[in-house]
Amino acid sequence: MSAVLIERKEKVGIIxxxxxxxxxxxxREVARGLxxxxxxxxxxxxxxxxxxxxxxxxxxxxxxxxxxxKTMTEEEIEYSRRFEIFPLYFEFENIGTPIIxxxxxxxxxxxxxxxxxxxxxVASENASFGLREVRWxxxxxxxxxxxxPIIAGMGVAKELILTGKVIDARKAEDLRIYNYVVPxxxxxxxxxxxxxxxxxxxxxxxxxxxxxLNFRAAxxxxxxxxxxxSNLCYQSEDRKEGVLAxxxxxxxxxxGA
Length: 257
What we know:
257 residues; alpha/beta; 2-enoyl-CoA Hydratase, Chain A, domain 1; four-stranded mixed sheet; 11 helices; 17% strand
């Protein structure tokens, strides 16, 4: 079974991250497949809106697959970051088609960044949101540092990113991170309802409006700097300790270097 599924419902393309047994974690296969799916649907003239969701009812995307990372060399990790992970996050900015995130459960770390990279976020009541990277000795360099202050304000962004805490769906809605929160059984219905609202408008105008909004936010430039800072984190002893502590299920012993 493919790790990324594509379905079409009239003018709506639905992408599903299909690794429920692994909490829909972002491994190399998902990163490549998700990027390919976005590009493919964006090129289809009959697709006016994309909905992105996760398989199952518990997790939208739990972020980077740390189990896979444990099996990779430093060179492989660097290659994946440069040519698989970061290109995926940049692709969300390149895609002209509006993207709705149907957040079916926890959106953590890189998964939260995927949700933020989408244009509109619809979440189920059992969903959550958290950027926990600082607890692992790194930073959220997939766009959260750029998106979250714009979406929820700098104060909220600093609190969530610097503490690494996880909030529930209703709190995320109160903070304007999630546009809508609905019962789990109504999630896709609501996402399709929002998609139908968009489809009533000119697809050309939708793409141009999204392009103008993204240009105003200048997220591309900010993400490039975030990646530079992230690379420094990846070279630090704290990052290595963070990964080791996570694997050993203990509190990390930070060195500050």
